[in-house]
Design brief:
N-ethylmaleimide reductase, two-stranded parallel ribbon, 2 strands, Oye-like, globular
Length: 97
């Protein structure tokens, strides 16, 4: 888990290289990385799967947005444990129109 979005420093690139050289299992990175950076990690073989938590909360159509290069909505952390739909299911899908 890369905690950059929570104010921590990102996982150093050299650490991912060392980890990949020693760990032969499936490596999943959950992070606040950009799509370009995640694609680079995948292409370089540093990770096998990219996990998206917060971006998915605000973008229920995340796969389509990433596939089509659409902008991502930012999740509202203030609503995370509010026990209501607001902030979880009321984000709108992207529309090109």
């Amino acid at each position: 888990m890369d905690q950059t979005s929570r104010g921590s420093s990102s996982i150093p690139l050299d650490f991912l290289h060392k980890l990949r050289n020693h760990f032969l299992g499936t490596l999943v990175l959950a992070s606040s990385k950009t799509q370009d950076r995640v694609e680079q990690f995948l292409n370089d073989g540093l990770i096998d799967i990219a996990a998206f938590g917060e971006p998915f909360i605000a973008n229920l159509d995340l796969v389509e947005r990433l596939r089509n290069g659409c902008p991502l909505l930012k999740p509202d952390r203030a609503l995370y444990c509010d026990r209501g739909a607001q902030g979880y299911t009321d984000y709108s899908a992207y529309s090109i129109n």
